Amino acid sequence: MSLLEISGVNKTFGGLKALDDVNLSVREGTVHAIIGPNGAGKSTLLNAIIGKLIPDNGTVTFNGEDIVGHKPHEINQAGISRVFQTPEIFGELSIMENMMIPLLAHRDGAFKMNPWKRSDDEADLIDKAHHFLDDVNLWGKKDTIAGSLSRGDKRRLELAMCLSQDPKLLLLDEPTAGMARADTNNTIDLLKQIASRGITMAIIEHDMHVVFSLAERISVLAQGHVIVEGTPEEIKVDPKVREAYLGGAEV
Ligand code: ADP
Ligand code: MG
Questions:
Q1: Is residue 82 lining ligand 1, measured as CB closer than 6 Å?
Q2: What DSSP letter does each residue of 30-97 carry, written as one string?
């Protein structure tokens, strides 16, 4: 079954067609990469999925519902969690305090969360924090200030915060950007582990090592259009893909 279905999506900025009749389907339980040269329309497509921009026409269907026109927080609540290039964590707070933010938001609602509220479920919150931090190997560092962590550990913390929201689809925008090789490989391993639990992922990525390590399906965007979709093996040898990269901007 297709969890995310993008159909006939167009977006024009001034005279420029940033998205040109984009069709893309992410099947439930798979890791789907969206690749393409600079300026291909990847970020625009991501923004159209998460509700940061509204396409000129076409449909974006998530879990059977058209989400075009919905607000970003509604789309997030519907089950789409996103991870941006720069980890979105609070650098001045500890790992544990960061982890409490999504857990409290889940308990109280994002706009009325009250960290000072004492309640019977406090032990339950700590149990949950333990569970999600253990999952990403950060429980042992729970009192460390998040800002002092390596890029890879920051990403681990952010992923733990995302996973605590129980997402149906994890959208990742260059999750290893700016990382050293060891952190990149570490992140690949963690993402593999998350994918193996059946969480669907759509990943926008420049680094082909990351793409080929994770993706089961790949859609190649060039000049706003999906020029090819296929398995990694098919994409590797497709002449259209080569031409898109060689004829355009850097990979
Ligand atoms: P990618 O993420 O693949 O590098 P983008 O989606 O950022 O590509 O951009 C696709 C095209 O749309 C580019 O030519 C870019 O300059 C243009 N573009 C993106 N956002 C805007 C905007 N807000 N206003 C005008 N042009 C934009
Ligand atoms: Mg971009």
A1: no
A2: -EEEEE-STTSSHHHHHHHHHTSS--SEEEEEETTEE-TT--HHHHHHTTEEEE-SS----TTSBHHH
